[in-house]
Amino acid sequence: MGHSGGSINVNLLLLSPAARELFQQAVAMSGAMGLNVFPLVKDRNEQNSRYIAYSVGCAKDNTTQFWNNATAVNNVLACLRNKSALELSSQQRLAEKAGIPKLQGVALDSGPNALFPSSYVELLENITEVPLVTGTVSKETLDSKFLIKDAVYVDQELLLWYCEQVFITRGYDYQNITIEVCAQEYNSSSRAINLADDITYYVTHYNLAKRMSQSKQPVYLYQFEYAGIGDAFVRPNTPQLVPEETPAHAQEMTYILGQHLGNFTKKDKKIQKIFSSFFANFAKYGNPSPVGVDWEEFDPARKNYFVIDFDEQLKMPGMKNGYHERAVRFWDEIIENMTGGVRIIESETEVPAEIKRPNNPVPIPSNSPPPISATEFEYTNGTNWKLLFWIGVGIIALLVIIYIITLCICGNQRQKYYETME
């Protein structure tokens, strides 16, 4: 069982041949692997590791020739084992500030005891098939909400830039039209705010559930949507989230593990008992359904999932169809067909590890196609509030003109009528 990064570890253990037969069930919460989510490559974390070794004085050189020397590498490892965790972790922070990729994910390895001996695609074909509970919360990170300005309209230039960054970091072979289609799809505040979560959580979790459902083992997909967490979840020195931004990433864990435990009301205590019973039931019986609740197995054709929410009587909506259906269709079908899907990355140097928020003006990567002006693209899907405002002004002005013309015509006709009466 794992959450977030721990959920990625669950994914990895299911993929690893070395871990086969070790687990009978799995729970993956708010974190799922994808082809280029922490890509399995031979040089994973290489730049960061070498930087740290050199910074703490364990590596005399930082050239390729030095690192290709087996004796030198063994000496570096022996030196690092004598360094404190604090010294190494402090250098890691400095490495990240210097622009070195973060330490994340695992490396593709080889040999008889290899944990990950082949590509993600090959490992996925032979994934350990066990009963699985997997799902997300409805507001995860909202990391793309900065695309929305004044809480109303979408910044077109930022949206175009962000769509391109998605294609770059995920390894898509894209063109200008691909960026345009992405911008069209997410050109509304309700869609733009979910762009980051769609590609990071919702589509990847759907694909995990879909792959695991191909086996004879049951798969249960859920979404936690209870927005009344309030003071039950408290992070030190961090403002409380507004209800519109909850439940956010990891907030549901307060009901399971007491993570960032705040002040529980009577309702919170009852929710804790109900919610935790799902996982206890799954561990004991292989089915998360509590007494009186029917949690159906996942069916890719229906994209069915269990909605975890609680009204005042602690009743839950239960099963629904169409788990993030629009996002799944867009990324798994439309973008897949336009680009041929993401390419297999063979080195961590091929793509950036993450999307960093831009400064103004928006920087366009040098290896990208010519930038697209927001004025060159006609957005037909979503709400452009500035455009609607000026359309409204134009309509009002037109009505006023028509009204004035009508008054003039009626006045002339009335004058002619009186002249004929005379």
TrEMBL record:
Coiled coil: none annotated. It holds the Pfam family COesterase. SUPFAM superfamilies: alpha/beta-Hydrolases. Keywords: Membrane, Transmembrane, Transmembrane helix. It comes from the Eukaryota. The chain crosses the membrane at residues 387-411. Residues 1-331 form the Carboxylesterase type B domain. InterPro entries: AB_hydrolase_fold, CarbesteraseB. This is Carboxylesterase type B domain-containing protein. The lineage of its organism: Eukaryota, Metazoa, Ecdysozoa, Nematoda, Chromadorea.
